[in-house]
Input
Amino acid sequence: MVKRHTVRMVAGLLALAAGWPAPAEEDDGADARKGRLQDVAPVVRRLLPLTVEKGALRLDREAWSRPPEGKVAEDLKAEIEAALVKQGLPKEFAARRAEEMAGAPDAERIFNLLQVASGSHGSSRSHGGTERSMQFSGGGLAAKLALAGESVQVELREEKGAKRSVEVLDDGEGALQLRASAGDGSFLLALQQAKGGRFSVALVEGTTPFAAAAESYPAFYRAHREAVENRLLPLLARLGVGAPPSAESPAVREAVLDRLRPVPETEREAVQQALADLDDAGQAKREAATKALAALAHRHRAAIEAAAKAPGASPETQARLKRVLAEGLARTRSSDLAEALGLAEDPAILVRLLAEAKEADRPHVVTALEKATGQKLGGDVEAWKKWLADRKP
Output
C-alpha cells in the first residue's frame, strides 16, 4: 500500500523533473536487494497482467483464466495442494482447501495462489452485494484484493527488507492507477491513465527523475520510447507486475510481420470451414478444427469471437472457441500493441524486420517501408540503414 508521505513526494516530482537538484546519493535501482515481491513474482504477474487494448493500458482480465504456458487449468489445484502440504498441512485437509481455493472466481483464485506462494496463513474475507475483499499478511508479504462491480484494486507490500509496495486500481472503464515505492526511498513511481486515455508517469529512481504525459499510452510510448523500454517496463518487471510487451519483443516483431502478410482467401475459407467443423459429429474432426483455429486465432480473432457469440452456437462449440481464444491470447496482445504503436509504419522497426525476415516475407516488408517513407531502396538493408542514420539529427 502506498503511504501518505509517498503521495506528497509525487506532488513534488514534476518540480524535480523541471530542474530541482537531484539527490546526492547514487542508487542501484529497484532491484538492488532481492525482496519478497521477486520471490512470488510468477504469481504476481498472473494477478497483475497489464496489456494494451484499444489504445489504452489496462489489467488483462482475460489472462486470469488462462493457465501459465505449459500447464492446464487443472494444474492449479494440484499446485496449491502441493504447496499446502509442503507448509505442513495434512494431505486430506490440503486437498479440500486446494479445491476450494482453486474453484474461486478468476482474480480471487490467483489471489489465493499468491497467499499460498507467500506462505501466509493469516487471512480475512468480506462480501457484501457486488463488493468483495480479501487480504492476508505474514510470510513477508501483506496483500489485499478489493472487487466492486467492474473495479479491481490490488495492494501488495513487503513486510521486511526494502519494503517495496505496489498498488494497482483499474475501474473497468478505462481509468488506471499504479503506485509503487520502496520503504528506503530508493524509488517512487506514479502512473495514471484517465478514462479518456490521457496517460502520465512520474518516476524518481537513482539520481535521474522523469515525468511526462501524453494523450494516450501509445502516444506516450512513441514520444518517450527510451524511458518506457529502459526504465518503466523493467521496473514493473522487477516488481513482479506483468508488464505489457515491448516494441523490441520478438513476439511483437512477429506480430508486425503478421500484419504485413496479406491474408489469402484460402486461409479465410479454411477458418470458416474449421468453424463449421466444430459441429461435426466426429470427435477427431472437431479436435482438428480446434487445433487449426488455435493456429490462426491471432489473425482471425473477430471471426472467432463472432462465432463464439452466435445465438445457435452449442455449449461445446462455445467452450472450444473460448479455449482457442485463450491459447492465442499472448499473440493477440502482441498484435494489439503493434497496432496501437503503429509499428507496421515505423521505418526503424521495418528496417530491422527487413534484416531479419525470411525471403518470403521480405517483399511485404519492402512494400511497407516504401509506403511509409516514400523512398525506393528495394531490399537493400544497408541502404535503408544509411537512410535512417542520415535522418537522425
Summary: The CA atoms of residues 218 and 342 lie 9 Å apart.
